[in-house]
Design a protein that fits this description.
Layout: H1 10-15, H2 31-41, E1 53-58, H3 61-68, E2 84-91, H4 98-109, H5 113-129, H6 132-156, E3 160-164, H7 172-175, E4 183-192, H8 205-208
Antiparallel strand pairs: 1-2, 2-4, 3-4
Helix pairs in contact: 2-6, 4-5
This protein binds flavin mononucleotide.
């Protein structure tokens, strides 16, 4: 994997990330670099390596206008003001392609037949035990993991990010040419050049932790 990282300071990347509302609308992130960031972000773990996510990167005027129409009032204008916005979708259809992933893993990492069969067995037992709601919850959670990684990877590339949940989910996948029953929008992340600044505090660890 080519690594175009300009900031490799973990502490800075992690602790100086701030949700950034204002991004330089005139700066264009090269699409190759966006794909590289996605490749890096998708090192995120996923259940049985299912990788149940899909990215729609909105970086054209037409795309921005379309996405903007789904944003609620509080965040309106932020899409047109970003270099690019990534819509992160959770993919409930991963059982369709999981075997392709397994076969590739077998080829690349010399999985034995027994190991392949074990993954297939565990996966089918797990999928068959999930209700539709549980499947959606599972993929939504995993799309959250990759979203977080994307925000940190963007900082490693010298960009700031602004996550946004205030948008209408219904109709969004369809508007961008995807099957609405399969793809569930999770988050929109504005990415670009900007100044992030600290403006929030956190609850104390003692208040959110129990030891048992
Ligand atoms: C899932 C999620 C949804 C969010 N939605 C919005 C949003 O719709 N609009 C907004 O301005 N900020 C949104 N934020 C940003 C949060 O307000 C921000 O992350 C939080 O206040 C903590 O600030 P920090 O990220 O700068 O540490 C969202 C963040 C997350 C993780």
């Amino acid at each position: 994997m080519a690594v175009d990282i300009v900031n490799n300071d973990f502490s800075d990347i992690m602790f100086d990330r701030h949700a950034t509302k204002v991004l330089d609308r005139n700066f264009k992130i090269p699409r190759d670099e966006i794909l590289e960031m996605i490749a890096q972000a998708t090192t995120a773990p996923s259940a049985v390596d299912s990788q149940p996510w899909r990215f729609i990167v909105v970086d054209t005027d037409e795309g921005k206008q379309k996405l903007e129409s789904f944003m609620w009032a509080a965040d309106r204008g932020r899409i047109e003001g970003s270099s690019a916005s990534a819509i992160i979708m959770a993919d409930t259809g991963w059982p369709e392609y999981i075997d392709t992933i397994f076969l590739r893993n077998r080829a690349e990492y010399n999985w034995s037949d027994e190991y392949l069969q074990l993954f297939r067995k565990v996966t089918s037992e797990w999928v068959m035990g999930l209700t539709k709601e549980e499947l959606e919850l599972s993929v939504t959670f995993q799309a959250g993991l990759v979203s977080m990684q994307l925000m940190l990877v963007a900082r490693a590339h010298g960009y700031e990010t602004g996550p946004m949940d205030a948008f209408t989910k219904e109709g969004l996948a369809k508007a961008f040419g995807l099957d609405e029953d399969r793809y569930k929008p999770v988050l929109v992340i504005g990415i670009g050049k900007g100044e992030g600044f600290a403006s929030t505090s956190r609850r104390a660890p003692q208040d959110v932790t129990d030891f048992a």
